Amino acid sequence: MNILIKSATIIDPKSEFHNLTQDILIEKGVISQIGNHLKNPKKYQEISFENLHISQGWFDSSVCFGEPGFEDRETIKNGLKTAAASGFTAVAMNANTHPIIDSNSDITFVNSKAEHHAVKLLPVGALTKDSNGEDLAELYDMKSAGAVAFYDYKKSIANPNLMKLALQYTSNFNGLVCSFPQDNKISGLGVMNENITSTSLGLKGNPTLSEELQVARDLFLLEYTNGKLHIPTISTAKSVALIREAKKKKLDVSCSVAIHNLFFSDEILTDFNTLYKVLPPLRTQHDIDALIEGIKDGTIDMVTSDHNPLDIEHKKVEFDHAAYGTIGLESAFGALQTLFTLKKTVDILTKGKPRFGVEPTPINIGNILNITLFNPDTKYTFSTKDIISKSKNAIFDNQDLKGKVYGIISKNQICLNS
Asked: Which residues are catalytically annotated?
């Protein structure tokens, strides 16, 4: 791959050219020159866009693509196309497929489907067999095949001894255990945050306590085992405080929050719109403020789209019976840009890589090119025309967002939006 990128503002604190607008010459996939008004004597392909900005390629720690088994919702091929168009050069794919991804051969299958794509697919294996919460899956074998973490997507581990064993066993090969933060005995049949809003709507509530008890339990187990733990998609102020204290103790813990849990509160559910039915549920403004503060002070390590395509049959039903989940890759950048500065948004979208085994690639001469191209200033209203996913269950439908993605350049491939 030989190209010349013209007049790109580089947003990369790890680069000596951070905040500078430069031309970038790439030869055989490697950055050979960065400077002003570079010549193009060899007539390489030139790439230029209005108000072009670039950063290190973005990463999402939690996406669902359906395949195998739920190809009607999404396929790996179209999911990766969606990720590329949304600015992501690497995504961690959850194991909530049919069959569940819980063996060496399952990981090998997923890797083979994504082998030649510009987006790096990082398979997450199930923590327990068939994600049933009873017996540990083939963790070491999956790690050997390329699994980057182990997670029963949206299913909490009720048995504390099983979680203890998982943390102990994976510490032998530096495996990352993910534990969904919900105590199902406490959450019960709750379908939204337990609060005055749930009472007024007559919907069963899922209290913050259900999350906080599980987080506290897992942190105690982590301290006992000296394992390696990731807590995905926390949603409450108390969870932030608990993890902040754990990090002060130097426990090996990381956590994420879903973008929509930063953007919407439970008050938006007054019209029973099932697009807003997500897990963990939308919480209060107090929780949102604490989550944003946790991102700013580093307690929360990464933000995820928690992209989960669902067909219309799972959403166009009564609120009590609707499935949890929203797509989010396409709206991720625009939503974050409405909440944070450009510098912080790029930091959020790139800092989770090392936790999932992805080496950062600073935009410096001599490095392989792995970048996202975007215009941070474009304002627009997100709608179905912006959706590339096969499923259309978008929580950000009809929301005003800021920032458009031009595409990515990764793995010696150019993926630009038309």
From this structure: 306
Closest CA to 260 of 276, 249, 272, 271: 276
* pTM for the structure as a whole: 0.97
Establish if 155 belongs to a structural domain: yes
Number of domains observed in the structure of the chain? 1
The tens digit of pLDDT for each residue in 175-184 reads 999 999 999 9
Structural domain boundaries enclosing 272: 57-356
What is the average pLDDT across 341-353?
Answer: 97
Q: For the chain, what percentages of helix, strand and coil (3-state, to nearest 5) are there?
A: 35, 25, 45
Pair of tokens at residue 402: 């800021």
Residue 119 and residue 83 in contact, taking contact as beta carbons nearer than 8 Å: yes
Dihedral of the CA atoms 62, 68, 74, 76 (nearest 10)? 70
- Angle, helix 285-296 to helix 237-248, in steps of 10 degrees: 30
CB 243 within 8 A of CB 253: yes
Query: The CATH number of the domain where 333 resides is what?
Result: 3.20.20.140
Residue 370 within any structural domain of the chain: no
Handedness of CA 364, 366, 369, 370 (dihedral sign): negative
d(CA 64, CA 126): 13
| Residues comprising the chain, all counted | 418
Is the distance from CB of 187 to CB of 213 less than 8 angstroms? no
pLDDT one-digit tens code per residue, 274-320: 999 999 999 999 999 999 999 999 999 999 999 999 999 999 999 99
- Check if the beta carbon of residue 54 is closer than 8 Å to that of residue 368: no
Q: How confident is the model at residue 407 (pLDDT cuts 50, 70, 90)?
A: very high
Upstream peptide bond of 68 is cis (omega within 30 degrees of 0) = yes
- Taking Cα atoms as reference points, which of 65, 58, 133 lies closest to residue 95? 65
Q: Is 19 exposed, middle or buried (0-12, 13-18, 19+ CB in 10 A)?
A: exposed
Measure the CA–CA gap between 10 and 21, rounded to whole angstroms.
Answer: 6
In a domain, 407, yes or no: no
Is residue 30 situated within a structural domain?
A: no
